[in-house]
Amino acid sequence: MVREANLLDLDAIVEITSLSLPALEEEDLEWYKGLIEAKPRGSVLLVGDDGGEVVGFILAYVKGFRGYIDAIAVHPKWRGRGVGSRLLVEAESRLASLGASTIYLSVKSSNVSALNFYLKNGYSITGVVLLLEAEVREIQAEVEGEVKVRILKRGVECPRAMPVTWWNSITGEADMQVYPRVEWERVITVYEDGRFRGIISLEPETRVALDYLAVSYHEPAKSLRVVLHALKSVLEEWGVERLVVPLDASKHSLLKILVDSGFRVIDVEYKLTKNLNRAIRQVLHNSWYTGKP
Known about the structure:
Layout lengths: L1 E3 L5 H11 L7 H11 L4 E8 L2 E11 L2 E9 L8 H15 L4 E7 L3 H9 L3 E12 L11 E6 L9 E2 L4 H11 L7 E7 L2 E8 L4 E3 L2 E4 L4 H19 L3 E7 L3 H9 L3 E12 H15 L3
Parallel strand pairs: 4-5, 11-13
Antiparallel strand pairs: 1-2, 2-3, 3-4, 5-14, 6-13, 6-14, 7-9, 8-12, 9-10, 10-12
Helix pairs in contact: 1-2, 6-7
């Protein structure tokens, strides 16, 4: 059975995450707790339940006509029994009921088993996200104006801005409703000469991978340089050594800013897409052709 997750499922979700997904953090329990409590509009968190035992889960989002599968994991002892497929089908159904006509997800290029799973379930590769990394002290991002930052721990503002990855354009609003409930997450807004330049969300660690980054629609390349300048100062103060920034490969001007600032590509993720309307039409066509419902 697939059902909505509740607070009683937290320990099982975190255990499955630790067994199935890399880079588990102790704070994941707090994140999922905040997600369940906040119930942000556009978020879907489901679990696979077998006689009261949580055997897997899936986290998804929807914004407008776009749905996004953020994470899916199955307990090792339940793999190969169709749990993942049932979770995916149910999540797609929930997203469709919320208005999504196209579903997106991201798979690291090295995760061949996940890539094959999604291709088998009707997804196709439609884009690439680059993961770029730099040593914080080596970041070169000089600016001329006066730069100021606001570090928000509990109250979160979300100015209108352009996310640098396609998935943040879907998840951003929902996640911003969760961040005030999560003690370890920091949201930073950056200004230059009083003009908004960008907003960042991250978890301070020795090596930081940005959870969210969006820059001003006005002069986005310049805004990214200002954001990097501000981040370098803040992260050095916090003792952060390395910074990882995800970026849509199609954003050429932003990519140039990152490369010129000292960032190098360390990994690649595939963007996968499934058109639900097309998938439904294909099922109906196959049923008509074979004469089977």
